[in-house]
Amino acid sequence: MAFIDTGGFIALYVPEDAHHQEALECREQTLKFSRLYTSSAVVSETIAHIQRDHLIDQSALARFTQDIVDRQKWIMLLHVDDDLTTRALEMVKIRNNRRFGLVDATNILLMEAHRIDYIFAFDSLYDGQVVKRGHETRFITRIPI
C-alpha cells in the first residue's frame, strides 16, 4: 500500500513539474500492486496549490478534480476525524518546523493507522519519519523510482 501526498499529485498533473515523468512511472508501477491512498486534506491542499500557481495550466485542476470524483479507479480516500486532527495538531506543535504542516502530520497518522509504509512524495520531509504499530516501529519509505 502507498499513500500519495500533494507533491505526488502535483507532479502527476503538471507536465512542467520537474518530477512529472518520474511520477507517471511511479503511479504505473504502484498501481500494479495497490491503489493509492490519500485524504481530503491532501486533495484540498493540491487544489489550493494548483489554483494559486498562475504558471500552472488550470486544465490540470479539471483533470485532478475529475479523477478524485472518479477515484474508485485508483485512489482510495481515507477519513480524517476530529481525534486524528487533534493528534496531528499536537504533532505540528511538537515538531515546530515551518516546513512540517498539518497535512504532513495527518498523512503520517493515517499511514500509521492504516499500516501504510510507503509514500508517493518527492520532498525529503518524510525521510527518517517513523510509523508505530504497537511494539513495532517502521520507517516511512518514499517509493523508489
Number of domains: 1
The average pLDDT score comes to 88
CATH topology: Rossmann fold
- General shape: globular
Estimated helix fraction: 40-55%
Beta-strand residue fraction: 15-25%
Query: N-to-C terminal Cα separation, in Å?
Result: 16 Å
Strand ordering within the main sheet: 3-2-1-4-7
Q: What would CATH call the class?
A: Alpha Beta
Give the oligomeric state. single chain
CATH superfamily: 5'-nuclease
Secondary structure class reads: alpha/beta
Could you state the order of secondary-structure elements as H and E?
Answer: EHHEHHEHHEEEE
How many alpha or pi helices?
Answer: 6
> What are the low-pLDDT stretches, counting only 5+ consecutive residues below 50?
none
Using the CA coordinates, give the radius of gyration. Answer: 15 Å
* DSSP strand count: 7
Instruction: Provide the CATH architecture.
Output: 3-Layer(aba) Sandwich
Largest sheet: 5 strands, parallel
Could you outline the blueprint of secondary structure elements for this entry?
Elements: E1 2-4, H1 6-13, H2 20-30, E2 36-39, H3 40-52, H4 59-69, E3 75-78, H5 82-95, H6 102-113, E4 118-120, E5 130-133, E6 136-139, E7 141-142
Parallel strand pairs: 1-2, 1-4, 2-3, 4-7
Antiparallel strand pairs: 5-6
